[in-house]
Amino acid sequence: MRDQNNLSARILIVDDNPLCIKILSRLCSKWGFETVTANNSQQALDALSTTSIDLVVSDIYIPGMDGLLLSKKIKEVNPSTPLILTSGFEAQEIESKNVAKRPFIQKPYTPSEMHELIVNQLHGKVRKSA
């Protein structure tokens, strides 16, 4: 099922859990998106410096620096790159991290929930496919 909005995008997936990366990468491919993966913040920053990225989906708790600090670094380098934060931790712990101002999705999420959030974040950011 290709993305119904005909969006063409490259998504950077940042998570220290290989299974989470694998599942989200497969979903994104199914939706017609290209993916780049990183399992820590340094790999994510390296990918951002060498590859054109349209959207970042990052777990909040990753090795190196957390997803919140990573999001600040991304905004310094490329302020127009949208970012979605994810976490499997309890809502109370997430609220203490002050993620309310950022797009966030709690793990486990359904494919349709993630797809809707990705499309909403990409809308207007990337080119439409022919």
From TrEMBL:
<keyword id="KW-0597">Phosphoprotein</keyword>
<dbReference type="InterPro" id="IPR001789">
    <property type="entry name" value="Sig_transdc_resp-reg_receiver"/>
</dbReference>
<protein>
    <submittedName>
        <fullName>Two-component system, NtrC family, nitrogen regulation response regulator NtrX</fullName>
    </submittedName>
</protein>
<dbReference type="InterPro" id="IPR011006">
    <property type="entry name" value="CheY-like_superfamily"/>
</dbReference>
<dbReference type="Pfam" id="PF00072">
    <property type="entry name" value="Response_reg"/>
</dbReference>
<feature type="modified residue" description="4-aspartylphosphate">
    <location>
        <position position="59"/>
    </location>
</feature>
<dbReference type="InterPro" id="IPR050595">
    <property type="entry name" value="Bact_response_regulator"/>
</dbReference>
<dbReference type="GO" id="GO:0000160">
    <property type="term" value="P:phosphorelay signal transduction system"/>
</dbReference>
<feature type="domain" description="Response regulatory">
    <location>
        <begin position="10"/>
        <end position="122"/>
    </location>
</feature>
